[in-house]
Structures are given as structure tokens and as C-alpha cells.
Amino acid sequence: MDAWLIWLVLAVGLGIVEILTLTFVLGLLAVAALVAALLGAIGLPVAAQIIGFTATAAAGIYLVRPLMRRQLNRGPDARSGAEALVGRSAVVLQEVDGDSGRIKLSGEEWSARCIDEDLVIPVGARVDVVEIDGATAVVYPREALPGGAPEHTS
């Protein structure tokens, strides 16, 4: 039997065991075995196949596996989508009050309203996003508004 066939059988076996165990190490070794099988199929000697397997396995285990583990260990605390926008800073594009307004948040234009219904935030002011309510960002001014105290509507 040719060496590349042995590598191919090893790759399939490691792949099957990886699916059953989800360790990520065996899957990376399966990929390395596929690389060795490819090297053997194009006619390189067994020594080159072993070097290819070793180099690919080492690269996978030391470079790829930590990235995969980091993604999996993000866990339920990782915020994404609208939740990830809470706590971010934005710029007012259209005056924001307790009912309406527009802000630029993470490069996108959002509808906004101020958490303090009596407060009016002028164009150009920086705000912090307190929560996301549907498609509306609920905000509060980052700093005191021009003119000292926050501007309240009458």
C-alpha cells in the first residue's frame, strides 16, 4: 500500500474520532495527515511527508487551536449585536429629547431618545448609549451640555 493511502486512512480515522470527541486537536491532526497524503500523492518521499505532517500539526496546534478555544470560551457573557452597543459613545446628528432624535453610533445612523425625558441634547454633543430599545438607542450626555447645566424643556 502506498504511503499516501495510509495518511488518507489516518486522516479519515482522526476526523471521525474528532467528530465524536470535539477536542479540536484530532481534527487538526487529521488536516495534517491530509497534507501528508497530498505530499505523498504528488510523489514526494516519506521523509517529506513526515516533515509536512509535523509542520502542519505544529502550526495547527500552536496557532489555530488557541484561536478556536478563545472563540468557544467567550461564553454567555459575550455581547453581540445591539447588546454590544450599550456603553458605547455616539455623536448627536439631530437634537435628541425624551421622544426622538438621531445619533451616529458605530458608523451607523440610529434613532435615539434621551433617558431623561426633560433633557434636550444638541447636535454635535457626545452621548453614551445606556440601552437599546428595539431600533432606538437610549442615551445620556457624556459631558455637561454647553451653557453649564443640562438644558431642560419647559
pLDDT under 50 segments (min length 5)?
Answer: 148-154
What is the percent of helical residues?
40-55%
Give Rg in angstroms: 28 Å
Number of strands: 5
Largest sheet: 5 strands, mixed, barrel
Number of helices: 3
Question: What is the N-to-C order of secondary-structure elements (H for helix, E for strand)?
Answer: HHHEEEEE
Strand order of the largest sheet: 1-2-3-5-4
Compute the number of structural domains.
2
Mean pLDDT: 87
Q: Per DSSP, what share of the residues sits in E-state strands of 2 or more residues?
A: 15-25%
Termini separation comes to 89 Å
Shape: rod-shaped
Structural class: alpha+beta
Feature tags:
alpha+beta, rod-shaped, 20% strand, 154 residues, disordered C terminus, OB fold (Dihydrolipoamide Acetyltransferase, E2P)
Model description:
By secondary structure, the chain is α+β, with helices and mostly antiparallel strands. The chain has two domains: 3-72, no CATH class; 81-141, OB fold (Dihydrolipoamide Acetyltransferase, E2P), CATH 2.40.50. It contains three helices and five strands, in the order H-H-H-E-E-E-E-E. The protein has helices at 3-21, 25-41, 46-72; strands spanning 89-94, 102-105, 108-114, 126-133, 136-141. A five-stranded mixed β-barrel has the order 1-2-3-5-4. Helix 1 (3-21) runs antiparallel to helix 2. The protein is rod-shaped and about 80 Å long. Residues 148-154 have low confidence and may be disordered.
Briefly say what this structure is.
Pfam families: NfeD. It is found in: Membrane. By secondary structure, this protein is an alpha+beta fold.
